[in-house]
Design a protein that fits this description.
The protein has about 80 residues and is an all-beta fold. It has one domain. It is about 0% helix and about 55% strand. The chain contains no helices and 4 strands. Strands 1-4 form a two-stranded antiparallel ribbon. Strands 2-3 form a two-stranded antiparallel sheet. The radius of gyration is 17 Å and the shape is elongated. The model has no long low-confidence stretch (mean pLDDT about 90). Bound molecules: zinc ion. Zinc ion binds next to loops.
Length: about 80
């Protein structure tokens, strides 16, 4: 079960079907936002800082596998 996002040197892979590219990710994100409202009351988020992030579930888009995602190394060619 993938519980972290892939870093610069690895990526997700579905062990059931081999999918490397398409996943549904459910994540909980705790953020601090700088909200800037104009005088009419219309508010916009101008800055967003992620304080904490938890990957809750990664699902394979191809086969629907839920506990089939693993982290594998990226191919060397993709690192350049
Ligand atoms: Zn799959």
């Amino acid at each position: 079960m993938a519980s972290v996002l892939p870093g610069e040197e690895d990526r997700w892979r579905c062990t059931a079907c081999g999918n490397l590219t398409r996943f549904d990710v459910v994540r909980t994100t705790r953020t601090r936002e700088y909200v800037h409202a104009d005088l009419s009351g219309e508010a916009r988020v101008e800055e967003r800082e992620v304080l904490a992030e938890t990957i809750e579930q990664v699902t394979c888009r191809w086969c629907g596998g839920v506990n089939t995602i693993e982290l594998v190394a990226r191919p060397a060619a993709a690192q350049g």
